[in-house]
Design goal:
The structure is a single chain. This protein is α+β, with helices and mostly antiparallel strands and 392 residues long. Helices cover 35% and strands 23% of the residues. It folds into two domains: 244 residues, 3-Layer(bba) Sandwich (FAD/NAD(P)-binding domain); 137 residues, no CATH class. Strands 6-2-1-10-21 form a five-stranded parallel β-sheet, covered by helices on one side. Strands 15-16-12-19 form a four-stranded antiparallel β-sheet. Strands 14-13-17-18 form a four-stranded antiparallel β-sheet. Strand 7 and strand 8 form a beta hairpin.
Length: 392
């Protein structure tokens, strides 16, 4: 059997390996001049391959897409992924947060060995070809010089990524092609992304780039602890990324969203109010709040939230510090997101990830309609779905 893989990212390369290991002839095409570029970008932050938490908790990280992804994640689970990486010479370790990294904490050594293995297995790599649609029994592509090429195969795996990595080709342009072919796609949106907030120039001048250390961020009954970071345009960081789905829902319902930040989550409201009961006559508001344990960046955030009209009593001040409202105007643009939500609807594929409207064509990786927080979950699901599509 001959197979074509469209997309040379983690999902596509894993599909290629799985097919080649089964003895099939495999060609991988990509519009870029090199392969594995998304993996190299991910490696800049250490290449977080997967996570070591209990597996049921791990599965829950995929939210509404857990039922669809679970068989694939069980078939190629974190332990299998680690064994695969070890076999490539990229021995892994578990960090203090439970995240799993290769010992080198970068992608280049792993990708180099992986690419060599695929070449030895007979995989044919054809860079510089952009997929533009289907033809009978294959795909249509356009080369950099504008020439068109039709490639034919018995099976096709699409692994074109989401829409958040335009510098390596992940621009989501495939959505239009698939919709024109009658395939249902959920609109792509930014996931694991920052949010936009209208800060005052004074706040930015003093605190751009500053983290709110040991804070708790809440929205719609959900709370995540961590260190959101003040950026020129708004907020970034783990808690913001984790709450992204809830923030997007609220933005969709109301056009704006409001999160609440607890600046001292380990101190109760009453305990903080008691700390704030005593104010020296010559104390400024900032000195008074710092003495209670609130950092300058947090104090500035409280001023932002109230238009610099802080409460005059200790109970009100404590209530504000325990739930500083921050008004979000939008998610950051999709091209600045770590990943994307949306993609090929689950109803458009069968259990083997084959497109119902295009028999013989499978989909893998971030093209599918799922999202997950950072922490190894993204790369794990891309590799798992790539292996699943290859086996199917």
């Amino acid at each position: 059997m001959k197979a074509i893989i469209v997309g040379g990212g983690p999902a596509g390369l894993m599909a290629a390996e799985t097919l080649a290991a089964a003895g099939h002839r495999v060609t991988v095409i990509d519009q870029r001049r090199s392969f594995g570029r998304t993996l190299l970008l991910a490696g800049r932050s250490g290449l977080n391959l997967t996570h070591s938490e209990p597996f049921d908790d791990f599965l829950d990280r995929y939210g509404p897409a857990r039922p669809q992804l679970e068989p694939m994640l069980r078939a190629f689970d974190p332990e299998v992924l680690r064994a695969w990486a070890d076999e490539l010479g990229a021995e892994t370790f578990v960090g203090s947060s439970g995240r799993v990294f290769p010992a080198a904490q970068k992608a280049t050594p792993l990708l180099r060995v992986w690419f060599s293995r695929l070449v030895e297995m007979g995989v044919d790599f054809r860079p510089g070809l952009t997929w533009t649609g289907f033809v009978d029994g294959g795909v249509e592509t356009v080369a950099a010089d504008g020439s068109k090429h039709e490639l034919r195969a018995d099976r096709i795996v699409l692994a074109l990524g989401g829409g958040s990595w335009p510098r390596v080709g992940g621009n989501g342009s495939w959505v239009g092609i698939l919709r024109d072919a009658g395939i249902e796609c959920v609109e792509l949106s930014a996931a694991n992304a920052g949010v936009l907030v209208d800060w005052t120039p004074e706040h930015l001048a003093a605190f751009e780039g500053e983290p709110l250390k040991n804070a708790a961020v809440s929205i719609d009954g959900l709370t995540v602890r961590g260190e959101p970071v003040i950026t020129r345009d708004g907020l970034e960081g783990g808690p913001i990324y984790s709450l992204g789905p809830a923030i997007r829902r609220q933005l969709g319902e109301r056009s704006v969203a409001t999160i609440h930040i607890d600046l001292l989550p380990d101190v109760s409201h009453n305990g903080l109010a008691i700390r704030l009961e005593t104010k020296r006559p010559k104390d400024s508001a900032s000195t008074y709040l710092r003495r209670a344990g609130i950092k300058p960046v947090g104090i500035s955030l409280m001023r932002e939230a109230t238009g610099n009209r802080l409460p005059g009593d200790s109970v009100g001040m404590a209530a504000l510090a325990k739930a500083v409202p921050v008004r979000i105007t939008s998610m950051a643009p999709i091209e600045r997101a770590i990943s994307t939500a949306g993609g090929v609807a689950w109803s458009a594929v069968d259990d083997s990830l084959q497109l119902r409207a295009r028999p013989g064509v499978h989909v893998a990786g971030e093209m599918l309609d799922w999202e997950a927080p950072t922490g190894g979950y993204l790369l794990q699901a891309c590799l798992s779905t790539g292996a699943w599509a290859g086996r199917s």
